[in-house]
Amino acid sequence: MSPPSEFRPLPPGSRDTPPSVVRPPSSSACPPCCDLGPAHQHDIIRLQDVTVAYGRRLAVDSVTAQIHCGSLTAILGPNGAGKSTLLRAILGWMPLSRGEIRIGDSHPQHALPRLAYLPQRVDVDWDFPITVRGVVEQGRYPALGAFRRFQAIDHQLVDNALAEMKLTALQDRQIRALSGGQQQRVFLARALAQGADIFLLDEPFAGLDAPSAAELAAVLKSWEQLHRTVVAVLHDLPMARRVFSHALLLDTRLLASGPVAEVLAPASLAQFYPAANA
Fold first, then answer.
1. Which has the higher per-residue pLDDT, 235 or 278?
2. How would you classify residue 203: left for phi > 0, otherwise alpha for psi between -120 and 50, otherwise beta?
3. How far apart are CA 232 and CA 76, in angstroms?
4. How much is the pTM?
């Protein structure tokens, strides 16, 4: 039986990139996009008039926004606001009805941005018989191609990802035997093994208990110090305020974007959601 899609590699290059998603030419090397530090921030993802429709229904309508390289950006809004759809459009998995998504810019350190995706926990078959290491190794599949076998560098990258996510001692354990926080770290390790520097997370805190959520928040905050770019769909406003630096407030159309302290300020939220518990 073939594994569910959540246990197949999710490389941006494994799907044809539609004309509306523009990526720069590839390069033989791609250091993390923000090694220059916060004083040299660039917009690593730029959305221009992005519109996505399901038939005649608009899921995302005319969104223009920028994601800063090295930022932790939360996409927030009510159910049905188009948050996950926008994330999938950035990945190139949803065709655009109108507009353009640009990933990277002319800066040489942005020569080949690499995207990795963390699915919603409800979309994962946690009973599928696969080990922690087996999931993390999937991050190397895009680089291997159809014929190349694992080499020493691939094993080393998997080892490094397991070590960074503190999973080395658990690498032979079945994923169903892990806690919720450990399971999320497995998928983050898969993204690291892939070589990603842009991480797109769909509801990463959903279904986690408080200790697991705090553990994941600490990982993401540490990634901010490493200038890794994280874009995450969230519902939890307090979590967004505590962990994330920037926010997009979405309700099919873009309502607000910018630093999280401004976008999620009570006075700002009251303009859009008068009854919101800010």
1. 235
2. left
3. 9
4. 0.82
